[in-house]
Amino acid sequence: VFWGHCINALVHSIILFWLPLKALQQDSVLMNGQAMDYLFLGNIVYTYVVVTVCLKAGFETTAWTKFSHLAVWGSILMWLAFLGVYSTFWPAIPIAPDMLGQAGMMVKCATFWLGLLVVPIACLLKDVVWRAGWHSYRKTLLEEVQELEARSQDPSKAVLRGISTKR
Fold this sequence. Notes:
Layout: H1 2-23, H2 38-60, H3 66-86, H4 102-108, H5 110-137, H6 141-150, H7 156-164
């Protein structure tokens, strides 16, 4: 299980870095005359990482509560707000002058928006397919009971069957 998670993380890392790098490989110049550089790529990759990690956490959540919604969607929104504030107020806060205008450049870049849709989906597609297959063919007792309760059926037969087979 450990090595499976390590390999999955490695695949996610490769997708999260190489897809944006290849998408931005052509030296494009934005309308304001600024070029896409390593800092621009880094901010895009980090944004994709935040979105992917939050969606993965949401995918692994078994019960969606207001707190899990707050954690998943709030984390994404907090990162975007932080990036916007951090890249706007350099003259007032003299830290990282290279970040000046980065959020604006990202928002105006069509490649960023396309990648924001494609990269997390590419990362999580294997997880979704694996989970769907696993839940279709190898349900746990808990999943069987949850499905029966969702259909308003009595789960006692599944529980007794689970006890008798010692699942």
